[in-house]
Amino acid sequence: xxxxxxxxxxxxxxxxxxxxxxxxxxxxxxxxxxxxxxxxxxxxxxxxxxxxxxxxxxxxxxxxxxxxxxxxxxxxxxxxxxxxxxxxxxxxxxxxxxxxxxxxxxxxxxxxxxxxxxxxxxxxxxxxxxxxxxxxxxxxxxxxxxxxxxxxxxxxxxxxxxxxxxxxxxxxxxxxxxxxxxxxxxxxxxxxxxxxxxxxxxxxxxxxxxxxxxxxxxxxx
Length: 221
Fold this sequence. Notes:
The protein is α/β, with parallel strands linked by helices. The chain is built from nine helices and eight strands.
């Protein structure tokens, strides 16, 4: 096998092991391969190995790749902080947006014609520059998204802080998810877990992993 195939199989095995340890079906977990800075050829190779979920966090790069690879049956996930002025362009190619975090962005994603799947990003730190909604501001954001046509709320997204054990951080997100289900019972998905902490995320209920280097290898210089 190629290095890419070996890394992909290793992650698939790790996901399956973590899911079984959590008493879950590995099929419940979607692995999104994050391909920022990598060439289109790598995404074609991934598709050849059965990967269908691709994550990007820079609009111009993502848009160009989506156009060039339109012949592949891919689901594009936008996982980076999204400027409101770019929202309509992003939703033209991305099926899922993982970084909804403010009223202006929700309004920019409004549509009476088409629906996009979305996660509300939660900020688990005290740094507002990291993006995401503060936990104490989550409830009104959920209601705002639910009341906006054109967005289907899947659940919550978060990145574990570096100064806290990952599993403890993911447990906080799981608890927030359980809380918002009082008003959004269908918003059960959790986008959390990256190359270094996806096993902990699965143990706390992650349904969508965002994995880059563990599968793609180091980014090109």
